[in-house]
Amino acid sequence: MSVESFDHWQRHGRPLYRADQVRELDRRTIAAGIEGFALMQRAAAAAWQSLKARWPGVRSFSVLCGGGNNGGDGHVLAAMAAAEGLAVQRILLKPRDALSGDAGRAADMATAAGVEAVPWHSDLVLEGELVVDALLGTGLGGEVRGEAREAIEAVNASGLPVLAIDIPSGLHADTGAVLGVAVQATRTVTFIGDKLGLHTGAAPARVGEVDFRALGVEAEAEVDLVPAAHLLDAGLIAAWLPPRPRDAHKGDVGHALVLGGAPGLGGAALLAAEACARLGAGKVSLATAPEHVTASLVRRPEVMVHGIRGAGELDGLADRADVLVVGPGLGQGSWGQGVLQAALGAERPLVVDADALNLLATLFTGQRREEWVLTPHPGEAARLLGLSPGEVEADRPAAALALQRRYGGVVVLKGAGSLVAGPEGLAVCPHGNPGMASGGMGDALSGILGALLAQGLPLEAAARLGVLVHALAADMAVRQGGERGLLAGDLASCARILVNPTMGEDDAAATR
Ligand SMILES: NC(=O)C1=CN([C@@H]2O[C@H](COP(=O)(O)OP(=O)(O)OC[C@H]3O[C@@H](n4cnc5c(N)ncnc54)[C@H](OP(=O)(O)O)[C@@H]3O)[C@@H](O)[C@H]2O)[C@@H](O)CC1
Ligand SMILES: [K+]
C-alpha cells in the first residue's frame, strides 16, 4: 500500500459499493483482460481459503448453489475442497441444463472433480459440519421467491455454522434489508468491492464476520468509481486527534453548552454533559431546569451548571460557547420549545438530538443549516422525513442521504450500522453492540459530538469520529463487563481512553 493510499485509508476507511458498482468493477476487470471464469476461480479460491482459516480441520460440508454466478462460486469451491479430500454435498437449486455461461462451466468443473450433485428438495437433510451459502449474491432482484426461500429457511434451521459467499442470500447488497428471508451467516466472504449492504440495517445481525477479498481487482480495474460509502476505521482517531501541545490552554479546546433537562427530565442532559467533558472539551456548561442543578453538581462538579426556568434566563450563555448541544431531555413543552428557539437563533454549530428533532419535525419545520449535526434514531428520522420507521429501515442509506439533502449539515442515522451523511458522502460504522440498546446512549453520543466540535474538528469529521468513538467505547465497555446491563454512563471513561491513542495499554488498564 502506498503512503498516499495509506493516508486515504486512515482518513476515509474502506470503500463500500452498491451491487451495480461491483458489477461495473467486474465488467471493467473482464474488459481489461481477466476472463469472467478466471475471476470466479479467484473468488472461489478466496472463499476456500476463508473457510479453512475460520474452520481449520473441517472434513465435510454442504454447499447450496443457486442458478447464477454466486452458485458458480459454490461449484468451484466444491471442486477445490474435493481435490483436498473433503466430503462435499453439492445441492443444486437449478438443474445443470438451466445453467449457462460461467455458472454452467463451474458446475461441470465440480462434476469433473467427482463432486456429486443433488437437486434441492424440501426434505433434504444438509450434511457435513457446516453449510456454504452460494444461493444468491449481488444478482438478487426483489423478494426471495420459490425454492430459494425454502432453501434459505433450511440453512437457518440446520443449526450448522454458515459461510456466506459474497453476501448472505436474501440480504439486499445496497441497503442491508432482508428481502423476505435471509441466511444467518457465521462468516461472509465478499469479493472485489465490499458492499454497503453488509454493514447496516439487518446486516450486522446476519453477516457474522465479514472477510473482504479484493481478488486483486482494485489495481487492475483502476478504480475511479465514487464509492457509495466508506467504512469508519479506527485509524481516524489518531489522524484527527494528535496529542495536545504541551502548552495547551482550556481556552484552546473549546467551550460546549448542553441545553436540555426540562422539568422532570434531568438525566439525559447530564449524561451528555458528562460525555462532553470526558471527551476533552475545555469547558462544559449545562443549562437545565433549576430542579436538576443540585444533582448535576454533585455528580459532575467540573460542569458549570445553570438553572434556567426558561430560555429568557439563558443570559448570553449561548454566545459564550463555541458549540451547542440541544435536545437531551428537552421535552416538547414550552421549556423545550423556548430553549430550542434560542439555540436555533445562535450563530454556533449545533448538535441536535432527541426532542429537539421531534420539534423540528412538528413545530419548527422547514429549518435547514449547514453548521449542524442531527442525530436521529430511525423513529425520529421517520418523523423528519414524513415516513414510517419501517420505510426508513428498508433503505437506511437512502434515508440518511435524504435527511442530509433536506436539512443540510451532517446527519447521523443511528441504529445497527450507524450512518453518517454529509457533504463528503456516506460513512458506515461497523462497530457497536446490542448492549447499546439502552436509555441514554444517544445522549452520550450528542455529548461526544459536542466535545469534538468544541475542539475544532470540522463538522463532518467530528460526526464520523464521534460515531466511531461512541461505538468503540461501547465495545470496550462490553469487553469489561458484558452486553446486558451496559449503561450509557459506562461509555465516557472508555471513550476517554480511545481519544488518547498514544496512551499505552498499561496506562489504559490502570485507569479502569
Ligand atoms: N464475473 C462476475 O461477474 C463474477 C461474479 N461473482 C459472483 O457472482 C455473483 C453475481 O452473480 P449473478 O449476477 O449471476 O447473480 P446471482 O447473485 O448469482 O443471482 C442470480 C440468480 O439468482 C436468482 N434470483 C434472482 N432474484 C431472485 C429472487 N428474488 N428470488 C429467487 N431467486 C432469485 C436468479 O434466478 P432467475 O431470476 O434467473 O430465475 C439467478 O439464478 C456475485 O455475488 C459473486 O458471488 C464472482 O464469481 C466474481 C466474478
Ligand atoms: K450467497
Task: Describe, in plain words, how this protein is organized in 3D.
GO terms for molecular function: ADP-dependent NAD(P)H-hydrate dehydratase activity; ATP binding; metal ion binding; NAD(P)HX epimerase activity. With 512 residues, this protein is an alpha/beta fold. The longest helix has 23 residues, at 459-481. The protein has two domains: 3-231, YjeF N-terminal domain (Rossmann fold), CATH 3.40.50; 250-511, 3-Layer(aba) Sandwich (UDP-N-acetylmuramoyl-L-alanine:D-glutamate ligase), CATH 3.40.1190.20. It contains 20 helices and 19 strands. α4 packs parallel to α5, α13 (354-362) packs parallel to α14 (378-385) and α17 (441-454) packs across α18 (459-481). Helix content is 42%, strand content 15%. It is elongated and about 80 Å long. Strands 8-1-10-19-18-17-16-15-14-11-12-13 form a twelve-stranded mixed β-sheet, with helices on both faces.
Name the descriptors.
single chain; 512 residues; alpha/beta; Rossmann fold; UDP-N-acetylmuramoyl-L-alanine:D-glutamate ligase; 2 domains; seven-stranded parallel β-sheet; 20 helices; 19 strands; elongated; disordered N terminus; binds ligand NPW; binds potassium ion; metal-binding
Number of helices: 20
Structural class: alpha/beta
Q: Could you name the CATH homologous superfamily of the largest domain?
A: Ribokinase
- How would a crystallographer describe the biggest sheet? 12 strands, mixed
The average pLDDT is: 94
Oligomer: single chain
Radius of gyration, rounded?
25 Å
Strand % is: 15-25%
The total beta strand count reads 19
Going across the major beta sheet, what is the strand order? 8-1-10-19-18-17-16-15-14-11-12-13
Number of domains: 2
Q: Which fold name fills CATH's third level, the topology of the largest domain? A: UDP-N-acetylmuramoyl-L-alanine:D-glutamate ligase
Helical residues, percent: 40-55%
Low-confidence regions: 1-6
In angstroms, what separates the terminal alpha carbons?
36 Å
Bound molecules: ligand NPW, potassium ion
In the CATH classification, which architecture of the largest domain applies? 3-Layer(aba) Sandwich
InterPro entries: CARKD, Nnr, Ribokinase-like, YjeF_N_dom, YjeF_N_dom_sf
Subunit structure: Homotetramer.
Organism: Halomonas ventosae
EC number: 4.2.1.136, 5.1.99.6
